[in-house]
Design brief:
CATH topology: TIM Barrel
Number of strands: 12
Strand content: 5-15%
Largest sheet: 6 strands, parallel
Helix content: 25-40%
Oligomer: single chain
CATH superfamily: Metal-dependent hydrolases
CATH class: Alpha Beta
Shape: globular
Structural class: alpha/beta
Strand order of the largest sheet: 7-8-9-10-11-12
Number of helices: 12
CATH architecture: Alpha-Beta Barrel
Distance between the termini: 49 Å
């Protein structure tokens, strides 16, 4: 590894990783629609065009001992971001880290499958957490568009060949795309769909990333490409940053508390953008937003359309906003024990589950027990739908021959 200039950021001492936990009792077949990965240092090796090989993203070591991604000699502090699974509680920090300070399941596919087996998770949708930026936005910010597109394509090639390709029946192929040029972004979605990708991620509120808002015609080529190829658009809460904070607010604590309100806001924006109404085949997954807010959104939409007159700008005649929400959107549940009773108002067929490995909100290695406490006693048909059948249908992904319950 090469070294970058001294950054003056002290690396705190960390404790050794905890021993592997025992495999958990399996109550259900679980299909997690929201987990994360850290790209290994060799992600871009051999995948960039020759003219960009010397500029390819690479992991470097600082004089302080951090391992960080560097692009054009600029460091990006995302390695180890919230990769807390298997680390002692005292080490649960948001900070630059070294790869040997996080579980290998974060960045090696064989170890990820082992951790999924410990957790009792059959299949997993994996979002980037490292060099791409949380919502896959970083490469779209480069002034050199050809270089940004090359990085985007190389990342997708790595994901498909190494991560998904390492165990295709267990890992859903989710890609990123080029956002600054929607025609190029749509072309990348179609390129990926032809080889088997079924999902893409992008920021849930792109205007917060300096991109056009979702109401802008800029997004039409990408929306159309997703709808026509059956590619699920995954909008991960927080991929556009935290909610607006008053002066003096505790950013981490308040920001984490407001995840569901952020999901409500971004979902309402995408609904009222009109894209779901104009593209009936568009599939949108609200990732890591929970479900507590969804029934309230449906109630509000119905009130707007039936009584207040505030919904006169809805663009569709054949479907109401709440019907469109149930047709085009899916909602991700991690630990919603008090609001699972709203599942029929939402639509049981629209609810999926997650483990959020290896982030701080994650339930690894106890996802089976967390879901069992929440779902035990519900009709088995509904449990099957929420724990794995809905997700398998949404992502067109295989399930094991023998399933629980």
């Amino acid at each position: 590894m090469t070294r970058v200039v001294k950054l003056g950021i002290k690396r705190p001492a960390t404790r050794p990783l905890l021993p592997d936990p025992e495999p958990r009792k399996q109550h259900y077949t679980i299909f997690s629609v929201d987990d994360h990965l850290l790209e290994p240092p060799d992600t871009f090796v051999g995948r960039m065009p020759k003219k960009f090989e010397s500029r390819a993203p690479r992991v470097v070591e600082t004089e302080e001992g951090h391992e960080v991604w560097s692009i054009d000699d600029k460091p990006y502090f995302q390695v180890g971001f919230m990769a807390v699974a298997g680390r002692p509680r005292e080490d649960h920090r948001v900070e630059p880290a070294r790869f040997d300070e996080v579980r290998p399941g974060c960045y090696r596919i064989a170890d990820r499958i082992k951790d999924m087996d410990i957790n009792g998770v059959w299949a997993s949708v994996n979002f980037p957490s490292g060099v791409t930026g949380f919502g896959g936005t970083l490469f779209s910010e480069f002034e050199d568009r050809d270089f940004g597109l090359a990085c985007t394509r190389a990342w997708n090639d790595w994901l498909f060949e190494e991560w998904h390709g390492g165990c295709p029946e267990r890992i859903v192929p989710l890609g990123i795309t080029y956002l600054s040029d929607p025609e190029m972004g749509a072309e990348e979605i179609r390129r990926n769909a032809k080889r088997g990708f079924t999902a893409v991620t992008m920021p849930e509120q792109p205007h917060k990333q300096g991109l056009p808002p979702v109401f802008d015609a800029h997004w039409e080529p990408i929306i159309r490409a997703c709808a026509e190829t059956g590619t699920v658009m995954n909008l991960h809460v927080g991929s556009s940053g935290f909610a607006a904070m008053p002066p003096g607010a505790p950013m981490l604590e308040l920001g984490a508390t407001l995840f569901q309100s952020m999901a409500f806001e971004s979902c309402a924006e995408w609904l009222w953008s009109g894209w779901p109404a104009r593209y009936p085949d568009l599939k949108i997954a609200m990732s890591e937003g929970g479900i507590a807010w969804v029934a309230g959104l449906i109630d509000r939409l119905d009130n707007i359309m039936a009584r207040s007159g505030y919904g006169s700008g809805w663009p569709a005649k054949d479907v109401t906003p709440s019907e469109c929400l149930r047709r085009n959107f899916w909602f991700c549940m991690i630990d919603d024990p008090s609001t699972v009773v709203t599942r029929h108002a939402i639509g049981v067929e629209n609810i999926v589950v997650e483990s959020d490995y290896p982030h701080g909100d994650g339930t690894w290695p106890d996802t089976q027990e967390v879901l069992h406490r929440m779902l035990d006693g519900l009709p088995e048909e509904e449990i099957r739908m929420m724990t794995h059948e809905n997700a398998a249908a949404l992502y067109r992904h295989p399930l094991p021959e023998k399933r629980l319950p």
